[in-house]
Inverse folding.
């Protein structure tokens, strides 16, 4: 690869904002040309890494790489947002969002909203994330990825955290099999009946 | 923080309650020692939780000794080791937060309350300066986020935006100078707790804010029929995410207490706030 700044058509003293703008414009232009996109991505990454070490950003979202349902780790299918997904996987939230916002309104489909929701979710902006996931799910109800994300947040909205806790503590240390007083009485009654049928008696009084 | 994060006593074991109380007492004493007698009164249970989370993710044990309450010497209580850095750090953070809360009150409220806050301000400022000397780097973070909060309020931001500064603030405070295996999870946990406190406070104050004309991100939905449901969903969503991150953390101690706060304490406060019979905000400012 040549000089990354030349690839983006910039002078070496360009600021981070200039780099972002140039990258976005070019990325939109060469959206379908994979070879060119690879080149652009490599150049952009090289510059941002370099600049990034000078001005370290410490935003909450940058640190995040988690949530299997909200990250695109397992994604293998065709996607026109492949580069955005790659950035998300690398935890580069700000870059991913910048690219995503650069996509014109007409091209914003279910996947766009899903990715937008993922970014919002990583930032902790839960209300907007829930709305974006819902929208993605509505636009493409069959897609399992969108459905999982939508359902997960919906469950949490309903106060799922608590139900989980109460069931786990009820099935905890002292009562692992879910066998309570009633079960024991019923069991004894049955045993008594069986014994009586065979001529014996387990419980004398009944 | 305003006394929303606290334990739910009926679900608590005695041994846990003693420890919980013990950390509270130690904090109270630390505040007294570092900032003088009056500073003790601003302590709330939120900060007890804060200190306990910090102690819980560390591998080394804090250690407790038997001691006595300094207000009522006849009453025994547990005492955390005095030189525990989490305790002293939490005491400093309490002062910082108190000062910002006060400054915020002066901005927001009117007449009597504002006057009272102004009256307290010089003393608070004195304590604040003292705290800044001890944890200077973190006070810069606080100031930056407070400025962001003001800016967002001015342009009437959404709930997500409005909650962001408080949430970032708490997450930064929580991970400051800590050794923890999964720092990212701790950061997110702090973020979500801060967000939850902000939303809960917004729900609690919504009616008053509308009357007084101050900023509240929930205002535009207040007339909606589904307002209560909406608030509950937002609170549940946030605490659900907090718990998810909590589960990723390696907790060395106090797990029962922290779970009690996160599941039962939070739930009872949620119910109380939603019912909106004036909540008792515990011992808060």
């Amino acid at each position: 690869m040549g000089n990354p700044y030349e690839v983006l058509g910039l002078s070496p003293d360009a600021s981070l904002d200039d780099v972002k703008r140039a990258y976005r414009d070019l990325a939109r232009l060469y959206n379908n040309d994979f070879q060119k996109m690879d080149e652009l991505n490599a150049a952009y990454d090289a510059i941002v890494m370099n600049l990034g070490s000078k001005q370290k950003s410490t935003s909450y979202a940058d640190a995040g790489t988690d949530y299997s349902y909200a990250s695109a780790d397992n994604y293998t299918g065709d996607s026109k947002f492949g580069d955005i997904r790659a950035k998300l996987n690398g935890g580069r939230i700000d870059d991913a969002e910048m690219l995503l916002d650069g996509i014109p309104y007409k091209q914003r489909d279910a996947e766009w909203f899903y990715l937008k929701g993922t970014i919002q979710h990583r930032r902790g902006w839960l209300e907007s994330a829930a709305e974006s996931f819902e929208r993605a799910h509505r636009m493409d109800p069959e897609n399992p990825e969108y459905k999982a994300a939508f359902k997960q947040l919906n469950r949490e909205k309903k106060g799922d955290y608590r139900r989980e806790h109460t069931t786990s503590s009820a099935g905890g240390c002292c009562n692992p099999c879910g066998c309570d007083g009633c079960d024991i009485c019923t069991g004894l009654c049955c045993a008594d009946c069986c014994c009586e049928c065979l001529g014996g008696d387990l419980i004398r009084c009944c | 923080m305003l006394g929303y994060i606290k334990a739910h006593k009926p679900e608590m074991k005695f041994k846990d309650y003693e420890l919980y109380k013990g950390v509270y007492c130690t904090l109270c004493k630390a505040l007294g020692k570092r900032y003088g007698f009056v500073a003790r009164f601003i302590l709330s249970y939120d900060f007890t939780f804060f200190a306990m989370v910090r102690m819980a993710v560390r591998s080394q044990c804090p250690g407790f000794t038997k001691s006595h309450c300094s207000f009522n010497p006849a009453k025994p209580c547990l005492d955390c080791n005095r030189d525990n850095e989490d305790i002293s750090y939490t005491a400093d953070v309490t002062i910082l937060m108190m000062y910002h809360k006060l400054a915020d009150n002066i901005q927001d409220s009117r007449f009597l309350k504002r006057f009272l806050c102004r009256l307290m301000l010089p003393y608070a400022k004195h304590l604040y300066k003292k705290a800044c000397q001890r944890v200077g780097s973190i006070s810069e973070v606080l100031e930056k986020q407070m400025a962001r909060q003001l800016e967002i309020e001015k342009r009437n931001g959404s709930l997500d935006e409005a909650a962001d500064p408080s949430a970032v603030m708490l997450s930064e405070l929580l991970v400051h100078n800590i050794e923890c295996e999964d720092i990212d999870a701790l950061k997110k946990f702090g973020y979500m707790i801060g967000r939850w406190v902000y939303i809960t406070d917004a729900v609690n104050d919504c009616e008053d804010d509308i009357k007084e004309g101050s900023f509240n991100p929930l205002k535009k939905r207040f007339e909606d029929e589904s307002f209560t449901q909406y608030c509950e969903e937002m609170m549940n969503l946030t605490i659900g995410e907090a718990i998810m991150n909590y589960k990723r953390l390696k907790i060395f101690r106090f797990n029962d207490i922290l779970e009690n706060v996160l599941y039962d304490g939070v739930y009872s406060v949620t119910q109380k706030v939603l019912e909106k019979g004036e909540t008792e905000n515990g011992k808060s400012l």
Chain B has one domain: 9-275. The mean pLDDT of chain B is 84. The radius of gyration of chain B is 18 Å.
